[in-house]
């Protein structure tokens, strides 16, 4: 007697399908038309459609609409998600953690995760995408090397009406679903800590400044510096590491602290500077970003900003599942995992302050 409105809509549509009024492959009326037909809200219609999609009765395709499945409705989905990684180092533990988090979350929704490595090559990335399309995957997670260069590959996926989500890095000029960490706030935490340690001559060292994630970290650094009344000029950004010149600047006290855009660069910087007679942290404090597994096991433990890679993977799979099920719309939802500061031996109070 008190059947929910969405259930009334759902049962009415099921009746039309069972009676042959709506046949396999037919497009269902638009949300607006259904609202008028049943005299209910859009929320009610979306609830009914989501349940039908979850039960395999219909398939919802972004920007195309909802379509009736055939008799094999329950099996229309491959229950596969492809994870395409265009990585520099296939054995980087951070990638493994992201994959682990994504696999765990995908399994909760009944999906299997297929991992493809494309090694920074756009043609290989495109071939991997086509390979996964041939396997009828339900969606893509993509960790791109350069998201701007991969734009045509994203367009290719969109042309095939398959949802996808970018992980860790994205193209600000091409809106997409995204899972990453809070780069901006993390950089503010790191820079404020160096300032708390009485450093005023702090430079930002970039690894791949074409990445928006590194630009966000630089923006956070600039914000913290300016809030402290410290100047920021073009000279404060290092995009090409000249270690001889940097060591000279450190010994002249022109630089007392370095905030590196990732741990890989921070570790390399410490090795290069110590090889030139610079003492870390006595002569210069070095801060990283990521918290690699190895960051605490070096001869000089690395102070850094920790991001939760497994959480990034879980968030990615969770959001992609919502998109596949038609529960999230708009194409540009972004989920940022939190960050925290980890202090070790590579930073100390400025002895010359």
Automatic annotation (TrEMBL):
Protein name in UniProt: Transcription regulator
Domain of life the protein comes from: Bacteria
Keyword Cell membrane: no
Any one GO molecular-function label of the UniProt entry: transcription cis-regulatory region binding
PROSITE patterns linked to this entry: HTH_GNTR
Origin species: Paenibacillus albilobatus
Entry keyword set: DNA-binding, Repressor, Transcription, Transcription regulation
Pfam family, one: GntR
Positions of the HTH gntR-type domain: 3-71
CDD domains per UniProt: PBP1_LacI_sugar_binding-like, WHTH_GntR
């Amino acid at each position: 007697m008190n059947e929910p409105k969405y259930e009334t809509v759902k049962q009415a549509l099921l009746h039309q399908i069972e009676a042959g009024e709506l046949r396999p492959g037919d497009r269902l009326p638009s949300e607006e038309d259904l609202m008028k037909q049943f005299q209910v809200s859009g929320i009610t219609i979306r609830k009914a459609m989501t349940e039908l999609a979850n039960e395999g009765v219909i398939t919802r395709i972004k920007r195309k609409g909802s379509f009736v499945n055939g008799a094999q409705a329950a099996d229309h989905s491959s229950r596969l998600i492809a994870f395409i990684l265009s990585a520099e180092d296939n054995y980087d533990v951070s990638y493994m953690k992201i994959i682990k988090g994504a696999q765990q979350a995908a399994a909760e929704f009944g999906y299997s995760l297929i991992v493809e490595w494309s090694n920074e090559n756009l043609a290989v990335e495109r071939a991997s995408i086509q390979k996964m399309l041939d396997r009828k995957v339900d969606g893509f997670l993509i960790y791109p090397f350069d998201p701007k260069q991969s734009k045509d590959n994203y367009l290719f996926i969109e042309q095939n009406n398959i949802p996808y989500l970018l992980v860790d890095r994205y193209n600000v000029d091409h809106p997409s679903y995204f899972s990453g960490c809070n780069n901006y706030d993390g950089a503010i935490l790191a820079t404020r800590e160096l300032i708390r340690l009485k450093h005023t001559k702090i430079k930002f060292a970039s690894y791949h400044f074409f990445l928006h994630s590194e630009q966000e970290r630089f923006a956070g650094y600039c914000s913290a510096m300016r809030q402290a009344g410290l100047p920021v000029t073009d000279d404060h950004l290092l995009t090409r590491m000249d270690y001889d010149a940097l060591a000279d600047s450190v010994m002249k006290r022109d630089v007392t602290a370095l905030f590196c855009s990732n741990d890989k660069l921070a570790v390399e910087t410490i090795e290069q500077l110590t090889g030139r007679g610079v003492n870390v942290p006595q002569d210069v404090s070095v801060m990283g970003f990521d918290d690699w597994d190895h960051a605490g096991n070096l001869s000089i433990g690395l102070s850094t900003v920790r991001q939760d890679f497994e959480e990034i993977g879980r968030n990615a799979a969770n959001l992609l599942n919502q998109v596949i099920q038609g529960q999230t719309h708009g194409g540009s939802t972004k989920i940022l995992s939190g960050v925290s500061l980890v202090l070790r031996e590579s930073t100390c109070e400025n002895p010359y302050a």
